[in-house]
Write a structure and sequence with these properties.
Layout: H1 3-18, E1 38-42, H2 58-67, E2 72-74, E3 80-82, E4 85-91, E5 95-100, H3 114-125, H4 134-140, H5 145-149, E6 160-164, E7 167-171, H6 193-199, E8 215-221, E9 225-230, E10 244-248, H7 253-261, H8 276-282, E11 287-300, H9 310-319, H10 322-330, E12 335-336, H11 360-373, E13 383-390, H12 393-407, E14 411-418, H13 420-428, E15 434-440, H14 447-450, H15 467-477, H16 482-499, E16 502-513, E17 518-519, E18 536-537
Parallel strand pairs: 1-10, 13-14, 13-15
Antiparallel strand pairs: 2-3, 4-5, 5-7, 6-7, 8-9, 9-10, 11-15, 11-16, 12-16, 17-18
Amino acid sequence: MNLNKKILSTLVVSAMLSATTAYAATVPAGTKLAKKQVMVINNGSEPGSLDPQLIQGVPGQHIAQQLFEGLVSQDGNGKTVPGVAKSWDNKDNKVFTFYLRDDAKWSNGKPVTAQDFVFAWRRLVAPKTASPYAYYLQLTSILNVDDIVNGKKDPKTLGVKALDDHTLQVTLAHSVPYFVKMMANSSVFPVYPPAIEKWGDKWTQPEHMVSNGAYTLSKWIVNGRIVMTRNDQYWDNKDTVINQVTFLPVSDQVAAMNRFMAGEIDMTYEVPNEQFKHLKKDYPKDLKVTGYLCNYYYDFNNKKPPFNDVRVRKALSYAINRDVITKFVTGKGEEPLYGFTPGSVEGFHAPTFAYAGMTQAQRLAKAKELMKEAGYGKGGKPLNVSILYNTSANHKKIALAVGQMWKALGVNVTLENQEWKTFLDTRQNHNFTVARDAWCGDYNEASTFMTLLMTGNAQNNADYSDPKYDELMNKALNTADDAARNKLYSEAEKVIAKDAPVAPVYSYVNARLVKPYVGGYPMHNALDYYYVKNFYLKAK
């Protein structure tokens, strides 16, 4: 056996051995549990859909992770662990084979099969589905995916097949070392074909939904609450402790905080920025602050004048005082962000950005110079800008601060807020001048952020397009070597800095209130993936 084959065999055996233990509720010995294991979580907003292939945004991902289960999941440290797949192996990081659990079942008692995954993935990329996450499978380079998404090939040609009921094989066009990590995202969760074939778009209603996660959907009152109960058909139900969980769509962080203090909510989505210091001082046992692989930025509508002028885009980006925003507006430990990709991404090293090394006074002077060159500002044409954001006191405060900073350039700023689902539609249809945006990584690798700005990406809300950027990214996505791939990412970041299609503001931390009696909360998952099946309530 040559060295390469020996290494590959070691990796295969390692994967299969390490993939035998799932992450489940671990109650420390001697812990006295509450008699009533019922939990209420605020989810921040109403999800646009409960359909795994149509979900976009963090609120939907949180819901899907309870109702459904993919090939893999994550533990409290962000490590990939088995889900429906009990083990897996690969050949050259190009052909992946997943071995499914014999005891994985749908909530109606039917077995979860490899064919269910094939059905879901073909559905995800089929043009008629119009999924906002079809591009996600394109990131994996699964065989024929680009031609399928572009309507040139039948979804049945997708490089995924069921070798038998419990063996799924995936073939990629080229090596992707981080492929398995990507399988924890809700877009690649399985769905139950008979439910969709019978009920169509109505299959996600409580009376029709069949799911394979630790919980089933009991009630869904739109803009009211989503109630889930324990799924007795779930393969690891014996280790689940929480019997019922309710998700609320409260977007007002102050209202959510008050309901938490009143004992109506056990876990919030986030905390009001202006209350953070008070909560840290007076409620240290309730406040949980963790790292979060997310960026916060503003989209400029690159095809709409005057934002088709790079000088205007750069001027507005330069005028944002990121230190002021992170220290005094958010104030929870966020880091100012001058590139697009957060520096905490595994293996990624951002290039040095010239404007990041300037003082804010120097940046503002440069911004005024650029505005003057573009014909705006003092003695020039007036520039009217509307900042679009989804309803949230925190987003409003940031938009107000940014608006004040832009007024120093002579810009007239108005604010426009919309509820979550309407906001997503408006932003995705490019019906804005400037829009609040953010991206939370789907997996811990730079491509989860940088592919967003590629031409034609459904999540490219800025409508940015640059051939050089696309070229660098396509090379990166076809590069198996980690160091070489990250070097290409760094070059691509320089193109973003040159074109300024968006204005990065900061990289997140995650701050929320969690009752001290809630056990199992993950403190080290950078993607903020949590699974209620791993929680338990201690006796008060």
